[in-house]
Amino acid sequence: MSDINSVTIIGRLTRNAELKYTTTGTAICNFSVALNKRYGSGDQKKESVHFFNIVLWGKAGEALSQYLTKGKQVGITGELDQQRWEKDGQQHSQVKITAKTVQFLSNPKNESGAGKSTYSQESTPSSTDDFQDDIPFN
Questions:
Q1: Which terminus has fewer CB within 10 Å in the chain: N or C?
Q2: Hey, how many other C-beta atoms are within 10 angstroms of the C-beta on 60?
């Protein structure tokens, strides 16, 4: 059996997306999502918040970056990507989610909740195939 690397999350953006470009001109869109987790029962209910860094590569990142603003609820499907490096003799590691699809679960023009629309990466000018070609670690 082969290994599987797949993650799906729904959360709210903690900051506006940041769009940068590699030296070769590939777009890199970075943003983060907060997920609220509730646990316990009765009067003992507690809540914790988890934060995840997301990267969206290529044309999809370029097209969607302007809509990825703080507070928006999004659904992300992608893969976990662990980056490792050494600095000052210390080993460091960070896990990010490399997004394959992004769905907007709150309407960008109408945050009141009335008439919410859903937008997905597939509705942008770039296709999933074009997006996959820009990911450098595959």
A1: N
A2: 26
The better pLDDT of the pair 55, 133 is held by 55
Q: Which CATH architecture has domain 7-38+47-129?
A: Beta Barrel (2.40)
20-45 pLDDT per residue, tens: 999 999 999 999 999 998 888 888 88
Query: What is this structure's pTM?
Result: 0.72
Domain regions of the chain by residue span: 7-38+47-129
From the number of C-beta atoms within 10 Å of its C-beta (0-12, 13-18, 19+), residue 86 rates as exposed
Q: Output the six-digit token pair for 24.
A: 């070769």
- Tens-place pLDDT, residues 89-99: 999 999 999 99
Nearest to 52 by CA among 28, 36, 69: 36
